[in-house]
Amino acid sequence: MFCLTWPGASVFVDGDALDVRVARGDRWLVIRERESVWLSITCETPGEHWSLGMEAFALEVDHPDDELGHRVPLGFDLEWEAPGRVTWSPTTSSIAIAASCTPHA
Predict the structure, then answer these.
(1) Tens digit of pLDDT for each residue in 61-86?
(2) Which of 17, 20, 24, 79 could cysteine-pair with 51, CB 3.0–4.6 Å?
(3) Are the C-beta atoms of 95 and 82 separated by less than 8 Å?
(4) What's the chain's Rg over C-alpha atoms?
(5) Rounded to whole angstroms, what are the CA distances from 51 to 45, 55, 59?
């Protein structure tokens, strides 16, 4: 399972399940299916440097739960570093990273 959130956006991947939501002004870009999605999550330096790349077609909607909208291209190319700020939870088998993300248009 992988989940990444920042103000106005989230990326959730769990096996075949995929949910991407990105605020774009007063509209939303959403992806709910893995078909035609390229996604790469890479640990560049263990415990401190990661990258995420994604290319897909999203649905532009008024509300993230809407089913109908306009098909638009969407891509991410994110990198972040958080040396010494990674925690592992054996209870949930998850990693938490205390890092900030600043999106650029």
Answers:
(1) 999 889 899 999 988 888 877 766 66
(2) 79
(3) no
(4) 15
(5) 10, 14, 24
CB 31 within 8 A of CB 37: yes
CA distance 104 to 59: 20
Q: Are 61 and 32 in contact (CB under 8 A)?
A: no
| Mean pLDDT rounded to a whole number for the chain | 77
Of 1, 9, 5, residue with least CA distance to 100: 5
Give me the amino acid identity at 35. E
Q: What is the DSSP letter of 36?
A: T
C-beta neighbour count of 99 within 10 angstroms: 14
